[in-house]
């Protein structure tokens, strides 16, 4: 699986022609910020048109038929202007990205991250960098969205420092973080969140049903191996060979330099590393007591209402900011406090383009949600699948495909499941398929198309990461890189779920394949 091997003729022929075509077409799209502004206008006019009709699809949030809201109505336009600032400042990825990057920026510009990467490279075989990077990206889900602001840019840094194409590293990390969103051997907050939604949907059919929060844990843990192997093969045998002709023309000052690690750097990294370890130990000690303030009232640390889970981003900030400062002073890259502030300021300068894109992206996503166009699309697709009345395995494949398509328009995992679970879960219970299995199928579909939709809130950020190395990177470049991962994971992961089901391997804790449980 080494990246040094040439791709097969088939891979360098038809596949490359397809991906090159996707890249050319995609890059003809307007700048992402302009595209989101244009989509905002399109949503406005679509809402005006579709608001003139009535629909039979039921909105599960209200129990009433879906109503398309006309965003060009005078009161809607007035509300748009009145809430524009709040819409932007409350855009969820904005605070996550900026706060985390403040800490990571100090760690990077002090040399702490770069020295750590060089030491890692000295002790890791080059051909193992890809699977290790993908595995770390998958595990990063435990820290919610940390992978987007930490692991993906590190993927580019690691590959570039190893003499490999940085965009291949970003692609591999993106595939693990987002394409493998539902693969993780470490339980995370997403497990109880989805289980709670599934249980409520199942109670529409069986009011007394109870599901375990880890009802998909065994399957998601096993899926880790699937995502790593698929991502490893595609990165080293398809993506990186295709990138050989793509020149790295980014600003050298914004890219890590490949230099030997001297004694002073080693000493500084040791001091910074011990600071980070000390911070982790203090965090563990703070969380350990059952009465810890970082736990929720029930004593759980993984639930969404647990202060620990709500503090992930500040924790990331501190765990990189403090070691970065220590490393900088020991290594001599920081001489005074002003140097630390300047490092943070320089990092924010690199985020200026993302801020512009995030502004228009936030307005578009808010308008799309307010219009209810996404809900209507989801409901019509789900009702069509229900009307087919096909066998269970075929229905599961259909669910994976439909969810993957809906995911192109409605990015939030919880929002989509809230919309469609009241239809899918009771429908399949009537066919004898358990809510646990239906949820597993949903999680596969929810993951595989994340990496090819520009509507993913973090998609513009990944474009910015790529532009750090290849200046003319556009939406088409990123989509063409990620499309093989999306297609391969969609096929192989779905087949793995069906095989998992056929072999009767437990899906998770207290999980069942059939309903009612036999």
Automatic annotation (TrEMBL):
One GO molecular function term of this record is: secondary active p-aminobenzoyl-glutamate transmembrane transporter activity
Q: Where are the transmembrane segments?
A: 33-55, 80-107, 119-140, 146-163, 170-190, 217-235, 268-288, 308-330, 351-368, 388-410, 417-435, 447-466, 478-503
User: Which UniProt key words apply to this protein?
Assistant: Membrane, Transmembrane, Transmembrane helix
Q: Name one GO biological process term.
A: p-aminobenzoyl-glutamate transmembrane transport
Keyword hit for Membrane: yes
Q: Which domain of life is it from?
A: Bacteria
Q: Per the record's keyword annotation, is NAD included, yes or no?
A: no
Name of protein: Aminobenzoyl-glutamate transporter
Q: Can you name the source organism?
A: Aliidiomarina sanyensis
